[in-house]
Amino acid sequence: MGRLKYVAVILFFTSSFLYPEGEGYRKWFSGRESLRQDPAVTRYYTFENVKDKNSIVKDLKNSGADLLFVPYKEGDRSFEDLKVVDGRVEGKKAVRLDGGCYRGPALDIKGNSFTVSVWFRRQGPGSIPSSGGGQGGNLVCVDGWERGWGIATSYDKVNTIRFGLGHPGGSYRVTSDISVPDNLWHHF
């Protein structure tokens, strides 16, 4: 039997109800340190130190695969929509994006298995509709619609979250039947 490899790309947006002296903060901090030390975790990102669009999001696993903000471009217009907002942990920050995104070096996944963990808070549909006319937003997208994989939210009848696996001509998707409400922190 082949070895199961885990890849954890953690986009950890930090909670206003977790105080530095409280049990919630201690659990969060302990979990963060545990993931940093776990040899099965290949990349680990938090946005707790972002100050503006020029801030580099360091990979806490020290792989050198840091993330940079890239504004959304339409023709010769550029939309720099990054906003630094209060995060999940008091005193820590998160980022709110609409059209722009963070990009980093590609990740070579060994084997057939990987794990991705994401904390996110939706605050309404994005201002840029998808090519299919739907509204939602990518949380994590690797290598695009036809070759890679992605996790996205959608604003439809149920307001769901979906995982897509690319193939030529489109994407295979698995969609949750559980609603993902706005303005609450969710863990996927």
Description:
It is a single chain. The chain is mainly beta and 188 residues long. It has helices at residues 23-37, 144-147, and strands at 10-12, 15-18, 45-46, 68-70, 72-74, 77-79, 83-86, 93-96, 101-103, 117-121, 135-142, 149-155, 161-167, 170-175, 185-187. It is globular.
Envelope shape: globular
Q: Helix coverage percent of residues?
A: 10-25%
How much of the polypeptide forms β-strand, as a percent range? Answer: 25-35%
Distance between the termini: 28 Å
Order of neighbouring strands in the sheet with most strands? 3-1-10-15
Report the mean per-residue pLDDT as an integer.
77
Seen as an oligomer or otherwise, the chain set is single chain
Structural class: mainly beta
SSE topology:
Elements: E1 10-12, E2 15-18, H1 23-37, E3 45-46, E4 68-70, E5 72-74, E6 77-79, E7 83-86, E8 93-96, E9 101-103, E10 117-121, E11 135-142, H2 144-147, E12 149-155, E13 161-167, E14 170-175, E15 185-187
Parallel strand pairs: 1-3, 1-10
Antiparallel strand pairs: 4-9, 5-6, 7-8, 10-15, 11-12, 12-13, 13-14
